[in-house]
Amino acid sequence: MRRYERILVCIDRVERDARMLAYVRAIGRLAESREICLLHVSEVKASGAADTSGDSPAPAEITVETLRALTGEYFEADQEEVCRCEVVHGAPLLEVLRFAHDRDVDLIVVGREFGGPHDAHDEALLARRITRKSACSVLVLPEEHRVKADTILVPVRDSECSANALEIACEIGAATEAAVIAFNVYRVHTGYSRVGTTLEEHQALLEAAAQRECRQLLKRLEGREAEVRCRCAPDHHGKPVSIILEALASESADLVVIGARGRTGAAGVLLGTVTEQLIRESPVPVLAVKKKGECLGLLRALLTLAGEG
User: Fold this and answer.
1) Do 155 and 271 belong together in one domain?
2) Tens digit of pLDDT for each residue in 236-252?
3) How many other β-carbons are positioned within 10 Å of the β-carbon of residue 81?
4) What total number of domains does the chain contain?
């Protein structure tokens, strides 16, 4: 497995985000990463902006020395040369995306709570925005997570991005001996009685089609070393995320790997919505897989608007 040669870790609050580094260390070893970057963005607030932190004490200032101390604590001495620590000033979203672009990063690792207490109304707000606009894959970690993954759940559709996500999951599974579950949630629409079928007959047809989709995805991964099991589930109410969350619990899954982009049209919109909801609600880490560079045009437009063009 050599997918993520350069990993960017976003550090916002040391006491909280340092927990991610054990996970990053494990990924770096599996992926034989050449460079691990720790980045802190010191946000520049507008003059006169109100302090919304209440009586909470201000977090300690994070410096390059602070980040270097973290690398010394979590990474081996012989790995020092691959660790880079930087502190920059600006808007967190823009600076993370800029750094990832400039360093040709393969994977961004960010805590779900990245962004501080001012985003308490949506603790995953910045994590979702980074995932949406990043030109590379993003791993979002909840505050509580296990370093080892024994079971990996991959929500799939008949799409190229699902195939990419399943391939990544299989590589992780082969390297860690984790089981991989390709999970297809199919929508059961009303109106089946109009064509003379019962609910059971209609659902059986959809189940068979979902199973075919899974088999077609697995055909693309012939020669895979990971154990892969296909599972399909009906969605009667248009709430696929609830069904995925139930599957995470029933399968005792430790990691979700999902494509961050689908096909154009309705399938792409659905998959993007599912990915963002999982980032906000999943109790386990979510790896949003992107084909590197697919959002590069959007990112360059953002940098141009910020005065980089």
Assistant:
1) yes
2) 999 999 999 999 999 99
3) 8
4) 2
The DSSP annotation for 71-111 comes to HHHHS-GGGGGGEEEEEEEE-HHHHHHHHHHHTT-SEEEEE
Q: Is 287 left (phi over 0), alpha (psi -120 to 50) or beta?
A: beta
Share of the chain above pLDDT 70, in %: 81
Measured in degrees and rounded to the nearest 5, phi and psi for residue 262 equal: -110, -160
CA angle 272, 273, 278 (to 5 degrees): 100
In the block, residue with structure tokens 């689908």? 262
CA dist 36 and 29 (Å) reads 11
182 lies in the same domain as 137: no
Do residue 20 and residue 129 come from a single domain?
yes
pTM of structure? 0.87
**Alpha carbon 116 to chain centroid distance?**
19
CATH number of 269's domain: 3.40.50.620
Per the structure, the complete domain to which residue 109 belongs is given by 6-46+61-145+294-308
Write out pLDDT tens, residues 73-100.
998 765 545 899 999 999 999 999 999 9
- Do residues 150 and 252 make contact, with C-beta atoms less than 8 angstroms apart? yes
- Where b means 16+ CB within 10 Å and e means fewer, 214-238 reads beebbeebeebebebebbbebbeee
Alpha helix stretches (DSSP H) within 113-198 = 125-133, 160-176
Q: Kindly state the tokens that stand for 184.
A: 């297809």
pLDDT exceeds cutoff 90 at 44? no
Q: Rounded CA gap, 104 and 221, in Å? A: 27
Is-contact 23 145, C-beta < 8 A? yes
Same domain, 162 and 216: yes
∠ CA 286-292-298, rounded to 5°: 95
- 289 falls within a domain: no
